[in-house]
Amino acid sequence: MATIINLLNTTQIAALTTAQIAALTTEDWRTFSTDQIVALTTAQVPAMGTRAVSVLTSDQLNALESADLRALSTAAIRALSSAQLAALGADQLDKLTTAQTVALSSAQIASLGSADLAALSTTQMAALSTAQVAALTTAQLTSLDAA
Length: 147
Known about the structure:
Shape: elongated
Strand content: under 5%
Radius of gyration: 16 Å
Distance between the termini: 51 Å
């Protein structure tokens, strides 16, 4: 079945209920424009779930506002691929909650660029688990020392 999401304007997107957001398919999420992503409310974002987050493009992820990123569940954050996480960039990664930062897998932590890692707050860095810290590369650790 073809998606009709591209026919909805931003006002209609913002009016969708969380149940309607949760019912959207991965095909629907793939067709969302960045303007439609921006139109999502912070109350709607948690309803996206891991399935939706895992298919978002770099442009779609970059369209998420800070409050929207913080509204994502830890499971949704863990569902991000390394490429998606890299697409967020330092200006968005430092907006993650401590719980979201702790939810990142060791592989996700290892995939962060030096600038991304350096952008994490002291609180976020202090919350990293032993496994997450052990996953840091020499280059990442060196960049922290330089920062």
